[in-house]
């Protein structure tokens, strides 16, 4: 699965068999990104696709020196399960 980053639409996405999986974000100030929505088509849920989107988005934020505001419940849950990435959360 290939994850792409559409900087104009502010989303990470992957084209999968049943549609498009998306992690949407919005700039939230200098050096801040708000991750507000994650969507995976129903037939593909539970297969780790959402997690791979979050990983790609966190990798991008780290590379850019940005902090994250996880208003999406899935992103917040993912960070709780992967505390090694909690250093990217905005205070």
Order of helices and strands: EEEEHEH
Approximate shape: globular
**Portion in strands:** 25-35%
Ranges where pLDDT stays below 50 over 5 or more residues in a row are: none
Per CATH, which architecture?
3-Layer(aba) Sandwich
Q: Taking all residues together, what is the mean pLDDT?
A: 96
Biggest beta sheet summary? 5 strands, mixed
- CATH superfamily, by name, is Gcn5-related N-acetyltransferase (GNAT)
The quaternary structure here is single chain
What's the arrangement of strands in the largest beta sheet?
1-2-3-4-5
Which fold name fills CATH's third level, the topology? Aminopeptidase
Keyphrases for this structure?
alpha+beta, Aminopeptidase, five-stranded mixed beta sheet
Description:
The protein starts with a strand and ends in a 10-residue tail after the last helix. The protein contains two helices and five strands, in the order E-E-E-E-H-E-H. About 20% of the residues are buried. It has helices at about 50-65, 75-80, and strands spanning about 5, 10-15, 20-25, 30-40, 65-70. It has a single domain, classed as Gcn5-related N-acetyltransferase (GNAT) (Aminopeptidase, 3-Layer(aba) Sandwich). Strands 1-2-3-4-5 form a five-stranded mixed β-sheet. The protein is α+β, with helices and mostly antiparallel strands and about 90 residues long. Strand 2 and strand 3 (about 20-25) form a beta hairpin.
